[in-house]
């Protein structure tokens, strides 16, 4: 495990400690730990930016919402098949590819649709 990943895991573990302190009403200790964690995170982010290191460089970026969030419904054929915010997920059987849920505002049909990541067209050209 690389150094940055190790540091981020330690910060995550300390955040769990902070959560337990908040439950136990230890506010002064929680404030101290919050300040330490903020300093550690800022330092880790600066070092990662300076070295160009990312926590998981092989992980694909989640695609953005479609430019036109409304499409033609496959059931009623009206243009009311609407992209649902917050429903983007990675395909389990096809890593690096995503799908999102759509809902027809006319007939109520719901379905998951594959999303293009924008890189697929570029890959086909090269």
* Count of strand segments: 5
Give the uncertain stretches in residue-range form. Answer: 119-126
- What is the string of helix and strand elements? HHEEEEEH
Strand coverage percent: 15-25%
First CA to last CA: what distance? 34 Å
Radius of gyration: 22 Å
Query: Rough shape?
Result: elongated
The largest sheet, given as strand count, sense and whether it forms a barrel, is:
5 strands, antiparallel
Helix count from the secondary structure assignment? 3
Helix fraction by DSSP (H/I, runs of at least 4): 40-55%
Q: Averaging pLDDT over every residue, what do you get?
A: 77
Computed structural class = alpha+beta
Observed structural traits:
single chain, 126 residues, alpha+beta, five-stranded antiparallel β-sheet, 3 helices, 5 strands, elongated, disordered C terminus
What is the fold's blueprint, element by element?
Layout: H1 3-23, H2 27-51, E1 70-71, E2 81-83, E3 89-90, E4 98-104, E5 110-115, H3 120-125
What's the gist of this structure?
The protein has 126 residues and is an alpha+beta fold. It has helices spanning 3-23, 27-51, 120-125; strands spanning 70-71, 81-83, 89-90, 98-104, 110-115.
Task: Describe the model.
With 126 residues, the chain is an alpha+beta fold. It is 41% helix and 16% strand. The chain has three helices and five strands. Strands 1, 2, 3, 4 and 5 form a five-stranded antiparallel β-sheet that branches. The longest helix is centred in the first third of the chain and has 25 residues, at 27-51. The model is unreliable at 119-126 (pLDDT under 50).
């Amino acid at each position: 495990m690389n150094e940055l990943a190790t540091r981020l895991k330690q910060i995550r573990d300390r955040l769990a400690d902070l959560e337990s302190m908040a439950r136990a009403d230890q506010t002064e200790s929680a404030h101290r730990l919050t300040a330490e964690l903020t300093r550690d995170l800022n330092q880790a982010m600066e070092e990662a930016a300076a070295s160009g290191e990312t926590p998981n460089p092989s992980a694909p970026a989640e695609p953005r919402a479609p430019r036109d969030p409304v499409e033609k419904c496959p059931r009623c054929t009206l243009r009311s098949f609407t992209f649902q915010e917050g429903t983007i997920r990675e395909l389990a059987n096809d890593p690096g590819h995503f799908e999102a849920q759509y809902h027809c505002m006319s007939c109520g049909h719901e379905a998951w649709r594959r999303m293009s990541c924008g890189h697929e067209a570029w890959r086909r050209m090269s």
